[in-house]
Design a protein that fits this description.
Blueprint: E1 3-7, H1 17-24, E2 29-35, H2 47-66, E3 72-75, H3 78-89, E4 93-97, H4 102-115, E5 120-124, H5 146-154, H6 194-199, H7 204-218, H8 222-225, H9 238-242, H10 248-261, H11 267-289, H12 311-318, H13 325-337, H14 342-355, H15 360-370, H16 378-387, H17 402-409, H18 414-419, H19 428-431, H20 439-444, H21 460-475
Parallel strand pairs: 1-2, 1-4, 2-3, 4-5
Helix pairs in contact: 3-4, 5-11, 10-11, 11-16, 13-14, 15-16
Protein name: Deoxyribodipyrimidine photo-lyase
GO molecular function: deoxyribodipyrimidine photo-lyase activity; DNA binding; FAD binding
Cofactor: (6R)-5,10-methylene-5,6,7,8-tetrahydrofolate; FAD
C-alpha cells in the first residue's frame, strides 16, 4: 500500500530521510502537511512564521510537482487529519522525521497509537545533528553546559547527507487537499510584509543558493564578520533551518568541504561556524530534557525573582522607542525584516531583562511573534540565558552596556542609521548616545530629543545598579 509522508519542519527534498526512504520502497508516496494549531500544548504560529510558511509551502509544492508528486494540505488536529488521510488512501505506512518538543512528541505518539497495528510508523532523524537522548555525559545524564557537549559530538561529526529522491510514485488518487490561499497566512490589513519580501526568499532552492554565496564569499571571514551587525556576513540560514528547508547535515558537510579545499578559509572561521550550528543542537538538547523550557526558569534560583511589570515600558521596547539607538535599531530591524542580528539580539535582550527588569518570557513571546526564525528551542534557551535564568555560570553579572556595545560593534553607526533614520545625520561620535551631545550638534543633525527621537527611558548606570541589587533577592 501507499506511504503517507507527514512533513513538518522539514520542507525539503534534499537530505530528507522520511521522503527519501519512502521513495526508495517504490511504493506510492503521499506527502502531507497539517497546519495544527489546536492540539494540546501547541504554540500558535506567530505572524512572521505564517508569512514564511505560506511561501515555503508554495515553493515545496512546486518542487514536489517537479518530482511527479502533489502536496496534500490539511488544517486541524493532527490526530484527526493524519489518520483521515491514511484511511482515505488505504496507506499502510506513515513516515516522518522526529520532532523534539514535548507537545509535538505527544502528538506523534497519539497519531501512532490511533493508527493501530495495521499501519507501520517509521520515525527518522533529520533535523538535528544528533538525537538528544544519544548524547550522554560520562555519568549518564544530559549536558547543561555547551563546551563539553561540543567536544563530545564534534568528532567524528554527523552522518553524510542523503540525496533528494529522483521521483515519487503517485497513488491512484491523491486525497482531498485544502487550498493554501484559504489558510489566510499572509497579512492583509495592514500588510507589514514589504520588508520581508525585500530580505527573504523562502524555500529550499533559495536556501541552497544563499548558502553557496555564504561559503564562496563570507565563510572565510565569518569569525569576524559575524560581529558586524550592519554587514550581511552571516549565513542567514536560521529561518531556512527553522522550517527545515535545508538540512543541518548538508550545511555541516558543505562548509567542511569548502574549508578542506580552500586554504584561504582559516580554521577559526570554519570552527566558529560549526560551533554555531551545534548551538542549535544544544538548545534542542536542553529542550528535550527540560520540556518546560518556554515557561519555567531553567535555573530555579530565579523562581523567586520579582520581575517588574510595565505595559508602557514593554511597548516602548517592542516598538524601538527606548531612546537607546542600538536597541531601537535592533527592534526595528526585527519588525521590518522578521530577523535581527545575533549580537543585537543579545543587546536588546539584556536591555529588556536587566535594564528594565521585565521578565524574559515577555521578550521570548515578542520574538516568537515577530521572527521568521522564531524557534521553539533556540528562542527559549537564548532568552533564558540572556535573562539570567538559563544555563549560564554567570547569571548575575552579564549586563550589557548598550552604549559601549554600540560603539564597539557599530562603530560608524551604519546599522543605527539604517534602522533609525531620524538619527542619520548624527556624527559617528554621538550617534550611540545622542543625549550626551551638545545642543549645537543635535540641532545640526535635525534631532530634537523627546520630539524627533525619544530621550533614554532609563539611565543605564542606575538601571544596572538596580538590577544588581534586585539579584541579591535570589543570589542566596
Ligand atoms: P549564523 O551566524 O550564520 O549561524 C549559523 C546557524 O547557527 C544559524 O542559522 C543558527 O541555526 C545557528 N546559531 C547561530 N547562533 C546560534 C545561537 N546563539 N543559538 C542557537 N543557534 C545558533 N536563533 C534561531 O534560529 N531562532 C530563534 O528563535 C532565536 N532566538 C534568539 C533569541 C535571542 C535572545 C538570542 C540572543 C539569540 C537567538 N537566536 C535564535 C540565535 C541567533 O541569534 C540566530 O540563530 C542567528 O542570528 C541567525 O542568523 P544566521 O542564520 O545568519 O546565523
Amino acid at each position: 500500500g501507499p506511504i503517507v509522508v507527514w512533513l513538518r519542519n522539514d520542507l525539503r527534498l534534499d537530505d530528507n530521510p522520511a521522503l527519501a526512504l519512502a521513495a526508495e520502497t517504490d511504493r506510492p508516496v503521499i506527502p502531507l502537511v497539517v497546519l495544527d494549531e489546536e492540539s494540546d500544548g501547541i504554540r500558535p504560529l506567530g505572524g512572521a512564521h505564517k508569512w514564511w510558511l505560506h511561501h515555503s509551502l508554495e515553493a515545496f509544492a512546486h518542487s514536489l510537482r517537479g518530482k511527479g508528486s502533489e502536496l496534500t494540505l490539511r488544517r486541524g488536529k493532527s490526530a484527526n487529519e493524519v489518520v483521515d488521510v491514511v484511511k482515505q488512501t488505504g496507506a499502510t505506512a506513515l513516515f516522518f522525521n522526529r520532532r523534539y518538543d514535548e507537545a509535538s512528541r505527544a502528538i506523534d505518539d497519539e497519531v501512532e497509537a490511533q493508527l493501530g497495528e495495521d499501519v507501520s510508523v517509521e520515525r527518522f532523524t533529520a533535523n538535528l545533528l544528533h538525537d538528544p537522548e544519544a548524547v550522554e555525559t560520562t555519568s549518564g545524564g544530559y549536558y547543561k553546559v555547551y563546551t563539553p557537549f561540543w567536544r563530545k559530538i564534534s568528532e567524528p561529526g554527523p552522518r553524510d547527507p542523503m540525496d533528494a529522491p529522483n521521483g515519487l510514485k503517485q497513488p491512484s488518487n491523491f486525497p482531498k487537499s485544502d487550498e493554501l490561499a484559504d489558510w489566510n497566512l499572509l497579512p492583509t490589513k495592514p500588510d507589514w510584509s514589504g520588508g520581508f519580501d525585500a530580505m527573504w526568499t523562502p524555500g529550499e532552492k533559495a536556501a541552497q543558493k544563499r548558502f553557496k554565496t555564504f561559503c564562496d564569499d563570507l565563510l572565510e571571514d565569518y569569525h569576524n564578520g559575524r560581529e558586524r551587525p550592519f554587514a550581511d556576513e552571516t549565513s542567514r540560514m536560521s529561518p531556512h533551518l527553522r522550517w527545515g528547508e535545508i538540512s543541518p547535515y548538508r550545511l555541516w558537510h558543505t562548509a567542511r568541504t569548502y574549508a578542506d579545499r580552500r586554504k584561504t578559509i582559516p580554521d577559526e572561521a570554519i570552527k566558529t561556524f560549526l560551533q554555531e550550528l551545534v548551538w542549535r543542537d544544544f538548545n534542542y538538547h536542553l529542550l528535550f530534557h527540560f520540556g518546560a523550557l518556554a515557561e519555567k526558569n531553567f535555573n530555579d534560583r530565579f523562581d523567586g525573582f520579582s520581575w517588574r511589570s510595565s505595559k508602557s515600558e514593554l511597548k516602548a521596547w517592542q516598538k524601538g522607542a527606548t531612546g537607546y539607538p542600538i536597541v531601537d535599531a535592533g527592534m526595528r530591524q526585527l519588525w521590518e525584516t522578521g530577523w535581527m542580528h545575533n549580537r543585537v539580539r543579545m543587546i536588546v535582550g539584556s536591555f529588556l531583562t536587566r535594564d528594565l527588569l521585565i521578565d524574559w518570557r515577555e521578550g521570548e513571546r515578542w520574538f516568537w511573534d515577530t521572527l521568521v526564525d522564531g524557534d521553539i528551542a533556540s528562542n527559549t534557551a537564548q532568552w533564558q540565558w540572556i535573562g539570567g535564568a538559563g544555563a549560564d555560570a554567570q547569571p548575575f553579572f552579564r549586563i550589557f552596556n548598550p552604549i559601549t556595545q554600540s560603539q564597539r560593534f557599530d562603530k560608524g553607526g551604519d546599522y543605527i542609521r539604517r534602522f533609525v533614520p531620524e538619527l542619520k545625520d548624527m556624527p559617528d561620535k554621538h550617534i550611540h548616545a545622542p543625549w550626551e551631545a551638545g545642543d549645537d550638534v543635535l540641532e545640526k543633525a535635525g534631532v530634537k530629543l523627546g520630539e524627533t527621537y525619544p530621550k533614554p527611558m532609563v539611565d543605564h548606570g542606575k538601571a544596572r545598579e538596580r538590577a544588581l541589587s534586585a539579584y541579591d533577592e535570589v543570589k542566596g
